[in-house]
Amino acid sequence: MSTPNIRPTPSANQRRSQRILLAIPVRVSGKRADETPFVEHTKTLVVNAHGALLELEEPVREGQVLSVRNVTTGEETTCKVVDLSPDTNGVAEVGVEFAQPNPRFWRVSFPPTDWSARSPEAKRFTSSPSAAPLPPQPKDPVAKK
Questions:
Q1: Per-domain residue ranges of the chain
Q2: Phi, psi for residue 138 in degrees, rounded to 5
Q3: pLDDT (tens digit per residue) in 32-63
């Protein structure tokens, strides 16, 4: 199953990597238009191998360079603002793109772009607990006859 389209765009069907709805704590830093630095602790809404959609209170502009630190791992990477949504209650949804693709940054495994529930790999796994046979139970050597 693929992630639903959060905000449809003409290029939505041309994704370079799968998106995953995942809230990861991040520390975002950058410089305001007046060159003063800012730091904001926030979270992702959606992640992929090329960036993320995150919530930000700090006003940013398209093309602005930011630094994003994965709070869980301490890893930090440079990214660029590529999409902005209107503020809702003082919080904007901001799409950021890594300077270089980094599928390991979020510490999740992204499925290949051609993956589907009908793929042969998916058929090896089942979500039904009754589909897998139970292992044989060892016999109790002291059980009464």
A1: 20-103
A2: -70, 145
A3: 999 999 999 999 999 998 999 999 999 999 99
Is residue 97 within 8 Å of residue 77, measured between CB atoms?
A: no
Report DSSP letters for 20-63, one per residue: EE---EEEEEEE-TTS-EEEEEEEEEEEETTEEEEEESS---TT
Q: What is the pLDDT of residue 19?
A: 78
With contact defined as beta carbons under 8 Å apart, do 77 and 67 qualify? yes
Task: Give the bridge partners for 39, in sequence order.
Answer: 29
Quote the CA–CA distance of 94 and 43 in Å, as a whole number: 11
CATH architecture of 20-103: Beta Barrel (2.40)
pLDDT classification of 108: cutoffs 50, 70, 90: confident
Predicted structure pTM score: 0.66
What the block records as the tokens of 93 is 């949804």
